[in-house]
Amino acid sequence: MTASQLQHPALAAADPELAALVGAEERLQAETLRLIPSENYVSAAVLEASGTVLQNKYSEGYPGRRYYEGQQNIDQVETLAVERAKAVFGVDHANVQPYSGSPANLAVYLAFAEPGDTVMGMALPMGGHLTHGWGVSATGKWFRGVQYGVRQDTGLIDFDQVRELALKERPKVIFCGGTALPRTIDFAAFGEIARESGAVLVADVAHIAGLIAGGAHPSPVPHVDVISTTTHKTLRGPRGAMLMSREEHAKALDKAVFPGLQGGPHNQTTAAIAVALREASQPSFRDYAHAVVANAKALAEALLARGFDLVSGGTDNHLILMDLTPKQVPGKIAAKALDRAGIVVNYNTVPYDPRKPFDPSGIRIGTPSLTSRGLRTEHMATVADWIDRAVAAAGTGDEQTLTAIRAEVADLMAAFPAPGLPV
Predict the structure, then answer these.
(1) pLDDT in tens, 239-250
(2) Which of 2, 27, 58, 86 is catalytic?
């Protein structure tokens, strides 16, 4: 029997076709170098919690205030997750029920704005998120979105523009945070602007929640009204989300999540969030968070030494955004070549990108997954060399080099088994 069949015997017996796909994904995750900054490996404990009999229970409402009976254990599970979130992030209130990051952000709109109100966030091509008022999103269709960006000369947020826009447009809600920001977010500067303009300030820390929990990125708590985050990515939990806030906003947020947007929470996910938060409270998690940043900085330096153009010139966190224009290889072609070389990235727009979003100039990479496997700063030159060779091969159509890199990647990955995967 394969390792996957041994780990999932009931699935293998009931649905061999699906079990084979799970096994194939386990092998892919084990053998490749995963550099997508929004991906990670969860622990075996988080995986187990995600697959428990808590799946069988419906639990509309909140602990002690449910619309279904039989919640004696579920209430305790959710309370554990809530109390751990409050302790890890140092917040007054936490809601662990949102199904994912986008629904969590929708709850923020429901709590603090009316359809047609002005909202403000970072423009998607500059590194923001769809749900920060971008036009193709429901948040841009139901609300009037205005966007700020980054300076073309530095790649850094233009706070003069942010302040000018906020005072001119007077948004009800301002989002700070995004999906392709390689630098530390200045929550204090955003806080001053939000107070001056009378807006509710929301920090969307989905990408950096684990870094904040581990002390590797400043906390937004003293400066913002609400924190929205996913629970996967750097936090290494299941695919879920949380909303955290000052006590004064607790009731509005809770009502927006339920009954405003959704019914019963996914109790198995809540349990896995509780496990991930317990892991995030341990000293070893702090070591991991700082190692993520150290690896990213080392990788950025190694890429710069090989002639790559990095947006903002480097990174302060887990993420590197690369403009491949000087390499004369479009981002999409490079990403697909890297994938064939066993290096998983995503193509991405860069600020002021002249190319279309589905065929952009850049790629986005990050270090959470490789750090979870145990790779250290001394390995980053090797990773940069693989990327350099693969991008060059993408430009010339050299499939032989891509095949050779894939074998080298698999050899190194075998020496650093991934958490949660069958060995």
Answers:
(1) 999 999 999 999
(2) 58
Question: Closest by alpha carbon to 201, among 165, 167, 225, 168?
Answer: 225
How far apart are alpha carbons 154 and 259 in whole angstroms?
44
Q: Which of 118, 179, 230, 270 is catalytic?
A: 230
Q: What is the pLDDT of residues 192-217, one digit of tens each?
A: 999 999 999 999 999 999 999 999 99
pTM over 0.70: yes
Give me the residue spans of the domains in the chain: 49-280, 292-415
User: Which residues sit in the known binding site for (6S)-5,6,7,8-tetrahydrofolate?
Assistant: 124, 128-130, 247
What is the chain's alpha carbon radius of gyration, rounded to the nearest angstrom? Answer: 22
Report whether CATH 3.40.1110.10 matches the domain 49-280.
Answer: no
Q: Is 83 annotated in the active site? A: no
Binding residues: 124, 128-130, 247
Output the six-digit token pair for 278: 């317990």
228, 108 in Cβ contact below 8 A? yes
The whole-chain average pLDDT of the chain stands at 97
Whether 31 is catalytic is no
Residue 284 predicted with pLDDT over 70: yes
Q: How confident is the model at residue 312 (pLDDT cuts 50, 70, 90)?
A: very high
**Domain 292-415: assigned CATH number:** 3.90.1150.10
Per annotation, catalytic residue among 26, 204, 254, 279: 204
Query: Encoding tokens for residue 197?
Result: 């303009």
Among this protein's residues, is 352 annotated catalytic? no
Q: What is the pLDDT of residue 4?
A: 64
Count CB neighbours of 90 within 10 A: 13
CA distance 49 to 47: 6
Nearest-angstrom CA–CA distance, 237 and 275: 8
Joined together, the tokens standing for residue 45 give 């404990």
User: Is residue 139 scored above 70 in pLDDT?
Assistant: yes
- Contact call for residues 304 and 323 (beta carbons, < 8 A): no
Whole-number pLDDT of residue 6: 77
For the CA atoms of 144, 148, 152, 158, the dihedral, rounded to the nearest 10 degrees, stands at 160
230 is a catalytic site residue: yes
